[in-house]
């Protein structure tokens, strides 16, 4: 089967790990160490590039500015449910909005574009007609590369471009890149709408290619991965009918199951037999070759690690609406004296990613999110029956004794609250708030400050009109690309 071929080849070239990269996304160093002007001409070179694509997506101790760590906490620390534990932590700047210019702002630019570059190399080689190997396997690698290339563009446009629902995608997004650019290239920003069109087209091409596996392929993209990301993209765009169609297809026909109430807390551990049920796509860590070292997301959340982030008092109050909710099982009270003195028995530490030394897998998209996409898309389409049905599935998995959600209660606001509970720590909150035009309120007075560090007024409460909701294009890119220099986000 294609899956077994994939695993054999991937294992064979796993030792290649990460190829070196220059400091900006315009560099021409290719994913397999061959000069960019030299085409990939052998199956071995293509497989090397394929492995390199997944490796840079995972990240390393040098490249943790994407799914190695920063993408996980970016959307959460900019919301109201996760906060920096103390000033000076790695997440402080994103949390407190204290940066002022493109030169001192955090960046999530470089590694996503490295993923795009490596994926493009795989696609170009696979579609060149110059390779003589197993065409089925070549087509599969190209289709997987399209999905990762689409995801990277989508993540970039959400971070650097206004949410689609604010102006129907008319504002500037990010440059669409489909090849390894020459160092002198100076591409400009495409509109948000153009980026969304590209992402949706890429995902549809991958799905319609019939080259992707339809069985569970842990750690690798399959057809259901492409459909799941497409559902996420379409919901964010506001195409609710299409988002619902893909979400319901995955729920009804995919090989995945929701973790049960009894399984939930322990199923996050990849060694638990139930773990495989729910992740539609996850980053698999098998050894230190895959590891982002102490900069990884697990260590940032772990009390015994950097303890960089905790859950806010406001979020704990939200969870306290139901003390029998199984999701309390992935929250831990402090065990160390200093933290005990600050938080007592409050379960402020998130334990979805477990301790740093377990090499645990990191689910990028789960079936639970698909249920919530289906519920929200249905609610926005005035389909109260399905909105209540899919929301109830998540609510009653959390607590089987909870009452079913009535059709009149299955509102977008109620679904948004459930997304906060279910997806906390998985990087969604800011993106959810801006696409639904919600106001994020950390605190409004000293009385309800909770555990928050002192924040400037602009960071205490804001909505999508706050210019710092978008990151600035990094100064390093402006310095080498005069076109981008004239297209900086407003306010910087």
Describe the protein's architecture and organization.
With 492 residues, this protein is mainly alpha-helical. 44% of the residues lie in helices and 5% in strands. The strands form four sheets. It has a two-stranded antiparallel ribbon. α2 packs antiparallel against α5 and α9 runs parallel beside α15 (367-380). The chain starts with a helix and ends in a 7-residue tail after the last helix. Residues 1-37 have low confidence and may be disordered.
Produce the secondary structure layout.
Layout lengths: L1 H11 L30 H16 L11 H8 L4 E3 L7 H5 L13 H17 L8 H26 L3 H4 L24 H17 L14 H15 L2 H14 L10 H4 L11 E5 L13 H5 L7 E3 L1 H7 L11 E2 L4 H7 L5 E2 L11 E5 H14 L3 H15 L13 H12 L5 H7 L4 E2 L15 H4 E2 L12 H6 L1 H4 L7
Antiparallel strand pairs: 1-3, 2-6, 4-5, 7-8
Keywords:
44% helix; 21 helices; 8 strands; mainly alpha; disordered N terminus; two-stranded antiparallel ribbon; 492 residues; two-stranded antiparallel sheet
Main sheet summary: 2 strands, antiparallel
Computed over alpha carbons, the radius of gyration is: 22 Å
* Shape verdict: globular
Instruction: Give the H and E element order.
Output: HHHEHHHHHHHHEHEHEHEEHHHHEHEHH
Quick take:
The chain is built from 21 helices and 8 strands. The strands form 4 sheets. It has a two-stranded antiparallel sheet. It has a two-stranded antiparallel sheet with strand order 2-6. Strands 4-5 form a two-stranded antiparallel sheet.
């Amino acid at each position: 089967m294609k899956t077994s071929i994939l695993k054999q080849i991937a294992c064979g070239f796993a030792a290649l790990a990460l190829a070196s990269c220059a400091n900006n996304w315009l560099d021409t160093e290719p994913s397999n160490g061959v000069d960019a002007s030299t085409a990939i001409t052998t199956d071995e070179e293509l497989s090397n590039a394929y492995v390199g694509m997944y490796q840079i997506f995972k990240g390393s101790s040098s490249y943790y500015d994407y799914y190695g760590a920063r993408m996980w906490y970016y959307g959460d620390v900019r919301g109201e449910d996760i906060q920096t534990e103390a000033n000076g932590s790695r997440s402080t700047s994103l949390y407190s909005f204290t940066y002022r210019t493109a030169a001192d702002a955090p960046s999530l630019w470089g590694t996503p574009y490295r993923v795009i570059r490596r994926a493009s190399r795989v696609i170009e080689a696979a579609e060149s007609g110059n390779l003589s190997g197993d065409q089925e396997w070549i087509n599969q690698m190209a289709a997987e590369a399209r999905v990762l290339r689409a995801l990277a563009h989508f993540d970039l446009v959400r971070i650097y471009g206004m949410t689609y629902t604010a102006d129907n995608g008319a504002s500037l997004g990010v440059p669409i890149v489909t090849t390894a650019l020459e160092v002198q290239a100076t591409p400009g920003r495409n509109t948000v709408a153009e980026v969304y069109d590209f992402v949706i087209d890429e995902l549809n091409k991958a799905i319609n290619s019939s080259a992707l596996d339809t069985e569970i392929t842990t750690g690798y993209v399959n057809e259901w991965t492409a459909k799941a990301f497409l559902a996420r993209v379409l919901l964010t765009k506001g195409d609710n009918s299409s988002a619902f169609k893909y979400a319901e297809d995955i729920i009804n026909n995919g090989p995945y199951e929701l973790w049960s109430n009894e399984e939930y807390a322990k199923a996050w551990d990849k060694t638990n037999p139930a773990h495989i049920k729910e992740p539609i796509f996850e980053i698999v860590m098998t050894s230190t070759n895959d590891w982002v070292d102490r900069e990884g997301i697990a260590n940032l959340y772990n009390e015994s690690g950097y303890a960089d982030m905790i859950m806010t008092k406001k979020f704990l109050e939200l969870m306290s609406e139901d003390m029998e909710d199984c999701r309390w099982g992935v929250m831990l009270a402090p065990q160390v004296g200093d933290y005990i003195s600050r938080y007592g028995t409050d379960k402020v530490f998130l334990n979805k990613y477990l301790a740093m030394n377990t090499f645990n897998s990191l689910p990028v998209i789960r079936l639970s999110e698909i249920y919530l996409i289906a519920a929200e898309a249905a609610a926005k389409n005035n389909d109260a029956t399905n909105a209540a049905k899919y929301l109830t599935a998540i609510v009653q998995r959390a607590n089987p004794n909870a009452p079913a959600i009535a059709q009149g209660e299955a509102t977008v606001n109620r679904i948004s609250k459930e997304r906060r509970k279910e997806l906390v720590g998985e990087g969604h909150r800011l993106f959810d708030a801006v696409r639904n035009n919600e106001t994020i309120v950390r605190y409004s007075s000293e009385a309800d400050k909770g555990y928050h560090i002192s924040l400037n007024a602009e960071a205490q409460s804001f909505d999508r009109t706050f210019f710092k909701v978008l990151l600035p294009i990094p100064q390093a890119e402006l310095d080498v690309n005069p076109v981008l220099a004239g297209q900086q986000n407003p306010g910087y």
